[in-house]
Write a structure and sequence with these properties.
Helix content is 54%, strand content 14%. It contains 13 helices and nine strands. It has a six-stranded parallel β-sheet, sandwiched between helices. It has a three-stranded mixed β-sheet with strand order 7-8-9. It has two domains: 4-164, Rossmann fold (3-Layer(aba) Sandwich); 170-291, Orthogonal Bundle (N-(1-d-carboxylethyl)-l-norvaline Dehydrogenase, domain 2). Helix 8 (167-195) packs across helix 11, helix 9 (200-207) runs antiparallel to helix 10 and helix 11 packs antiparallel against helix 12. The longest helix has 29 residues, at 167-195.
């Protein structure tokens, strides 16, 4: 049974996930570039490491959740990185949302030394991370998935094995496309209601009884109504996720017109300095732009 876990990336998602692993009884080692994040976990009983290599040497399973492909690649394969501390039987679980090609490259290099890797991106946002109710989509060797399953159960509720290396990331892109376009639908519906002088809270309540009912309507719709745009999932990260989805589609000669349209809108807002807001802030940003 796995006892020693290393965790890299203690941001909005990573910190509560790491705390849930401590609560589940795992011995936890942590690494992050922010000293205050490390100190917060040290006070909860985690061991602070000075490098990814040191963390890999101390751990049986290593979890990373980082902003994008370059950071994951540097941590996994760079100088003083995880690969230098890996050995046969050890497992990397990357829970970041990055492109599948990077995951497959890391997977091949780890397998060459007898270690292994899984790509296991998550959905559920900050609330899901805090409540250990994340949806986890996993790609890689099925035997490694079986080994990691108890760890996944400490972090999420819906855990799905999707197939070979990279499959988790492709599935996450599917999730982000579906969620983004559903959110855009709620934003446009609310915008129409508001311009017609109808209370959008009442609109949400009315829609919740029909085919439009969804988690997006209930959760994102509530954030819009309350104008609570504190970042549960930052716009700049969603913009990155749709870029990854477009890249995956282009590699397969597939056109995703709705995704391309919304991706362009997000990119423009990030360029305008709105990237730190929650994705739901698109509602206010869109309405403000119509007033100009």
């Amino acid at each position: 049974m796995v006892k020693k876990i290393g965790f890299i990336g203690l941001g909005i998602m990573g910190r509560p996930m790491a705390l849930n692993l401590l609560k589940a009884g795992y011995e936890l080692s942590v690494f992050d570039i922010h000293a205050e994040a490390l100190e917060a976990l040290r006070l909860q009983g985690a061991v602070v490491c000075g490098s990814p290599r040191e963390l890999a040497l101390r751990s049986e399973i290593i979890i990373t959740i980082l902003p994008d492909s370059p950071q994951v690649k540097e941590v996994a394969l760079g100088n003083n990185g995880l690969l230098e501390g890996m050995s046969a039987g050890k497992l990397l679980i990357d829970m970041s949302t990055i492109d599948a090609a990077t995951e497959m490259d890391i997977h091949q290099q780890f397998r060459a030394i007898g270690a292994d890797s899984l790509d296991a991106p998550v959905s559920g946002g900050q609330i899901g991370a805090e409540q250990a109710t994340l949806s986890i989509m996993v790609g890689g060797e099925e035997s490694s998935f079986d080994l990691a399953l108890p760890v996944f159960k400490a972090l999420g509720k819906k855990i799905s094995y999707m197939g070979k290396s990279g499959s988790g990331q492709i599935t996450k892109s599917c999730s982000q496309i579906a969620t983004a376009l559903a959110t855009q639908g709620i934003i446009e519906a609310f915008a129409l209601a508001q311009t017609a002088g109808i209370d959008i809270a009442k609109v949400r309540e009315a829609l919740s009884g029909g085919f439009a009912e969804s988690k997006v309507l209930m959760i994102t719709g509530d954030k819009i109504i309350r104008k609570d745009f504190a970042p549960g999932f930052k716009l700049k990260l969603y913009s990155k996720d749709l870029r990854i989805a477009k890249k995956a589609a282009a590699e397969r000669s597939l056109v995703l017109p709705g995704t391309a349209l919304l991706s362009g809108e997000m990119d423009a807002l990030v360029a305008a300095g709105k990237g730190e807001l929650d994705f739901s802030a698109l509602y206010d940003v869109m309405n403000d732009s119509k007033k100009d």
